[in-house]
């Protein structure tokens, strides 16, 4: 994934009239980034930080104890699409809001579209680029600007129950074809290998990304879309068959209340998910010592060894009057060992954004996973085996809603193949309705 060119940025619709194109007017924000850079304050500063991370204030307090001139107050908000993002957009429109906010990688382009974020390059962000994982840094970099500091990511692997797999003489599948074979054997024992969430296409998107898909790219002054490429269609056909053969359940999604009940009742044998899923697995009743971690299945000799789900940044909203101080805090929080360790301990963040430090806690064997040092053995290599060509686009969440609406038709006889094709057409319409240029890629 490479930073967008200047022409590519124009393709996002990131012009002076971006707020109008987005259909979400945010008066007062367009002028903030157009003004000269705000110099550091000469006196004490109080920063506010909106995020859905639990106990974030405990992390801020470590900074506060050593930086009396710059104090940070964490304010909990609902997760992005559960209310956090609308709250941020409302604050931007009112000319208010926090200095820092937790914003997912995939949502950064949507905030840029409404001029909602400070370009941190103006405050020296480029000086810290080499400290971060290159793939993550590219997801916050557009033209010469930087619009967030990577906070965590979600490299993928497979959590599995060795005892349930051993009942059918199997080990953790190394390929998706093996996965299907093992799934069929497990169904003879009334066990599912995993579930397929029809209402949340994030999981399917991650698996297609692993297969080599890259749905949207910038080309000149517009976007090019191709959701019916070979990698995506292969993924769709594979899971059409898996669902039709009852190899996976579509009755619930991963980490839902029914999923926890099924996992506790020994009815779920594995879970292909992100690194942050380890903490959620600990919520399964009686699960300690029963689960292990393996690399996620591969698409034979093609595709990539891993993929990613989720991941957030610490971004600075456009109405902040102290962007330099906010950047200093974000860099400390995301790059110091003290900050990373505190975020893991108190907030349970996903994978560290640093290529050379995963956190002291994650260097230790895990009692829950039977003494396995799975972070170093599995997830660290996974971060180096991800698709680097995936690019998020400015209406990602709307696109996911479109895909989810089409996926739900699978429950009444539809196919994922048809759902993807229909979604592509609807996403093209959605782009054009925003005033953005897009065309279908031709082979």
TrEMBL record:
Residues 1-30 form the signal peptide. Coiled coil: none annotated. InterPro entries: Bact_solute-bd_prot1, SBP, TAT_signal. The keyword Lipoprotein applies. Keywords: Cell membrane, Lipoprotein, Membrane, Palmitate, Signal. It holds the Pfam family SBP_bac_1. PANTHER family: ARABINOSE-BINDING PROTEIN-RELATED (PTHR43649), POLYGALACTURONAN_RHAMNOGALACTURONAN-BINDING PROTEIN YTCQ (PTHR43649:SF33). This is ABC transporter substrate-binding protein. The lineage of its organism: Bacteria, Bacillati, Actinomycetota, Actinomycetes, Propionibacteriales.
